[in-house]
Amino acid sequence: MKRIFLSPPHMGDSELEFVKEAFASNYIAPLGPHVDAFEQEFARKVGAEYAVALSSGTAALHLALRYAGVEQGDKVICSTLTFIASANAILYLNAEPIFVDSEPASWNMDPELLSAELTRLAERDDLPKAVVLVHLYGQSADISPIKEICDRYGVALVEDAAEALGAEYQGKTPGTFGQAGIYSFNGNKIITTSGGGMLVSADGRLADKVRFWATQARDAAPHYEHSEMGYNYRMSNILAAIGRGQLRVLEDRVTRKREIFEFYRNELAAVPGISFMPEASYGRSTRWLTCITIEPKLFGATREQVRLALEEQNIEARPVWKPMHMQPLFERCRVVGGAVAETLFNKGLCLPSGTSCTDEDLARIVRIVKQSCS
């Protein structure tokens, strides 16, 4: 019985040709013509002025926060319902996370709770240096009110769009509204370079500084001269070659992700106790992962029982992200709200959503979900 993974890589037709070209040119180490081309092509694709290819989305977030001036003891507000990388980057700079709950319409940061928290902090003259706004599971947060709140208080907005490449917010790409936006090309993302990330910005000085820091902060000199601390965060030419090929199939991947979601919804929406992650009215979700919530009393089984039933049949499913304020690492951090994210974690399940899944695979998954309550 073949394994069905949650969201495995799916290669197109041109990635291997780009990689062969990189090998033929002997640009194997970090940097090279494919990195330059990938940055330019990605910036055009998302509508950004500048793009910097990096070793991971986490690295991009780390450098974006450093540029925002985050230092030891500073506060940074972050969505609580997210993967831990969003918050770890705050810790890299010895700053203090404050977590904000989700709102039900998108599962992303609640603008009203953010506004209340920034007002509270402003009254204490203790504003955060930045807000990390996460766009979850392929869906944009409600950016406009959040950006207005950040601008009102002079707080840098950094968008974690790691899961939302290909999504839309009011006709534009999430990740292009704040001071900086970051994307991930991890193996499970909608397009992949096996590992890697991208930072985008409208600020050329920001992009230049991030590129400098990411290349060990090497000063302009014939020898190795360093006046600032840097990092080994650049993307390799080989991985950028893969990324260029993947970028060409992005819209195909978004289309298939949405088809997979519709398959599940058509088959499961009428089942008592099962609900789907909503699509907010202001944009288009990529449906990177199809996420459902399960009400045990109505369905007849818990989220975890369904997950285990799938696993017994060699099918990978995953609970919705455990909120950061529930993680042992952050148990002493402040959280604003929290009940929405906690409920989504307790009842939420991510179903296999790989774009190479066949309709037969999806039908098998649906059958097991339905049977798990009997």
Q: Keywords for this structure?
A:
about 375 residues; alpha/beta; Aspartate Aminotransferase, domain 2; Aspartate Aminotransferase, domain 1; 2 domains; eight-stranded mixed β-sheet
Please characterize this protein's 3D structure.
- The chain has two domains: 15-247, Aspartate Aminotransferase, domain 2; 250-371, Aspartate Aminotransferase, domain 1, CATH 3.90.1150.10.
- The longest helix has 19 residues, at 250-268.
- The protein has helices spanning 15-25, 33-46, 57-67, 85-92, 111-123, 143-153, 204-214, 237-247, 250-268, 296-299, 303-312, 339-347, 359-371, and strands spanning 50-54, 75-79, 96-100, 130-134, 156-160, 168-169, 180-184, 197-201, 274-276, 283-284, 290-294, 318-319, 334-336, 348-351.
- The protein is α/β, with parallel strands linked by helices.
- Helix 1 packs antiparallel against helix 8, helix 2 runs parallel beside helix 8 and helix 5 packs parallel to helix 6 (143-153).
Weakly predicted, low-confidence segments: none
- Summarize the helix and strand pattern as letters: HHEHEHEHEHEEEEHHHEEEHHEEHEH
Instruction: Bin the strand percentage.
Output: 5-15%
How many H/I helices? 13
As for the number of domains, it is 2
Number of strand elements: 14
Rg from Cα: 21 Å
CATH superfamily placement of the largest domain? Type I PLP-dependent aspartate aminotransferase-like (Major domain)
From the spread of the alpha carbons, the general shape counts as: globular
Structural class: alpha/beta
Helix content: 25-40%
Name of the CATH first level of the largest domain: Alpha Beta
Alpha-carbon distance between the termini? 23 Å
